């Protein structure tokens, strides 16, 4: 019996020590050791990201690529062989530059055979003409009525053969003309200035062979994209496609130099999603594990100066960010006003929050911003003003560090701490356990 009491007592002590450890953890590590105020963790953002639009800017920025407004597809005669290709994908060509050439060896052999056939037809024509001349001479010299009728019938038959040979001769001449034109036009030239794209697969293994006419739905051997007449093709996912429509104004920025930008409008949004691939993805999409459909949209620019075909760019919704005054421009909801002065909650060098006075210019009602003249730089971090913030609170730039709240609004950490530190109920439970154990032991003794 004494051994059972000892086990229960030890268990109670262990529980109490565990509670003490939990209390120490929450007080020292979770609430901040030595911090001023109540120790609540405060989320801060960089002034630079806030000025550039913060999360709004990221959600309205998409990837884009410069492409040509006009494309021309150069078809290949599927009955001919290609002997040589003079260009490769990405080459810049001028109108009438050679693109590729057909193999003329077979065509030349065919031409020679056509000429032989034509000569054979000509021989038949000459023979028929001679026959008609002989039959006509015999008919005219004959005085026998039956003989004249028979000769006349032969003349009619030979004339029919001659007419057929004349027709065959004209057809053969047409074939020869076309074959000669094909040989003379064996080299295919560029129909316009542009950049060569999407050449069909023709390499050393199949040059000189007839390519399958079914390799392309439109039998195009290569495509040329016109130079200079550019537009931007962007990609947007299904969750953001509602942000744009035809006529939406956008700003296009260089990925290498954000100061280089172009303005334009959305002209078209594809109604069918693009095929899934990794060539283009929405900028700033953190849902890497979620598969969403993506749609192409197209932007017509006011000017294309400085752009190159195939150049990758950022596309932003134009909400006037390029028209902000020089210097820092902070949304008004980050600024406190007290007794005619302006303040922000700013992170100090010790990464604690402090109320810092700033000097501002005239309020911009259209954009709800104040230009900050002094007291703040792009390298600073500030927080949204909240009643729970106190001077000296610790700060974080990671939103996930903030304690989460339960459905009834209670902080989960505080809830756990309250439950863990409810020593009265624990002690009562411990005493009850001991009493119950004693009662049990007494009953066992009575039973014995």
Task: Please describe what this structure looks like.
Strands 2, 16, 17, 18, 19, 20 and 21 form a 7-stranded antiparallel β-sheet that branches. The protein has a 6-stranded antiparallel beta barrel with strand order 3-11-14-13-12-15. It contains 7 helices and 22 strands. A hairpin with a 2-residue loop joins strand 17 and strand 18. Helix content is 34%, strand content 25%. The longest helix is centred in the middle third of the chain and has 40 residues, at 145-184. The chain has 448 residues and is an alpha+beta fold. 17% of the residues are buried.
Biggest β-sheet description: 7 strands, antiparallel
Note the overall shape.
Answer: elongated
Beta fraction: 25-35%
Secondary-structure-derived class = alpha+beta
Low-confidence stretches: 26-38, 53-59, 203-217, 277-289, 419-448
Proportion in helices: 25-40%
Order of helices and strands: HEEHHEEEEEHHEEEEEEEEEEEEEEEHH
Q: For the terminal residues, how far apart are their CA atoms? A: 13 Å
Radius of gyration: 45 Å
Q: What's the pLDDT, averaged over the residues?
A: 77
Let me know the number of strands. Answer: 22
Counting H and I runs of at least 4 residues, what is the number of helices?
A: 7
């Amino acid at each position: 019996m004494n051994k059972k009491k000892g086990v229960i007592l030890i268990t109670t002590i262990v529980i109490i020590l565990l509670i003490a450890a939990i209390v120490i953890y929450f007080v020292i590590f979770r609430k901040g050791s030595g911090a001023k105020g109540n120790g609540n963790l405060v989320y801060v953002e960089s002034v630079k990201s806030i000025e550039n639009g913060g999360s709004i800017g990221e959600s309205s920025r998409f990837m884009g690529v410069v492409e040509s407004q006009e494309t021309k597809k150069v078809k290949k005669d599927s009955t001919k062989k290609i002997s040589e290709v003079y260009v490769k994908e990405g080459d810049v060509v001028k109108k009438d530059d050679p693109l590729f050439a057909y193999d003329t060896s077979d065509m030349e052999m065919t031409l020679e055979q056509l000429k032989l056939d034509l000569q054979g037809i000509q021989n038949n024509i000459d023979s028929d003409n001679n026959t008609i001349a002989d039959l006509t001479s015999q008919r005219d010299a004959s005085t026998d009525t039956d003989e004249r009728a028979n000769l006349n019938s032969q003349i009619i038959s030979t004339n029919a053969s001659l007419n057929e040979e004349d027709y065959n001769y004209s057809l053969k001449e047409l074939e020869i003309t076309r074959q000669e034109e094909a040989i003379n036009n064996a080299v295919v030239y560029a129909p316009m200035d542009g950049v060569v794209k999407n050449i069909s697969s023709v390499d050393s293994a199949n040059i000189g062979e007839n390519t399958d006419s079914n390799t392309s739905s439109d039998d195009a051997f290569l495509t040329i994209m016109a130079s200079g007449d550019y537009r931007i093709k962007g990609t947007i996912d299904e969750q953001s496609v509602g942000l744009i429509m035809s006529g939406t104004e956008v700003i296009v920025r260089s990925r290498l130099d954000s100061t280089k930008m172009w303005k334009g409008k959305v002209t078209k949004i594809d109604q069918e999603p693009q095929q899934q691939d990794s060539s283009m993805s929405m900028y700033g999409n953190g849902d890497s594990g979620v598969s969403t459909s993506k749609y192409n949209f197209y932007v017509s620019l006011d000017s294309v100066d400085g752009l190159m075909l195939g150049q990758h760019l950022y596309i932003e919704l134009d909400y006037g960010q390029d028209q902000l005054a020089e210097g820092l421009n902070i949304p008004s909801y980050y600024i406190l006003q007290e007794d005619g002065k302006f303040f922000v909650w700013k992170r100090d060098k010790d990464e604690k929050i402090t109320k810092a006075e700033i000097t501002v210019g005239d309020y911009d009602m259209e954009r709800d911003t104040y230009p900050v003249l002094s007291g703040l730089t792009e390298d600073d971090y500030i927080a949204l003003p909240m009643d729970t913030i106190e001077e000296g609170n610790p700060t974080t730039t990671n939103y996930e560090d903030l304690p989460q709240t339960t459905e009834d609004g209670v902080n989960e950490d505080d809830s756990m701490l309250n439950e863990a530190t409810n020593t009265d109920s624990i002690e009562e439970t411990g005493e009850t356990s001991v009493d119950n154990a004693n009662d049990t032991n007494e009953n066992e003794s009575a039973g014995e």
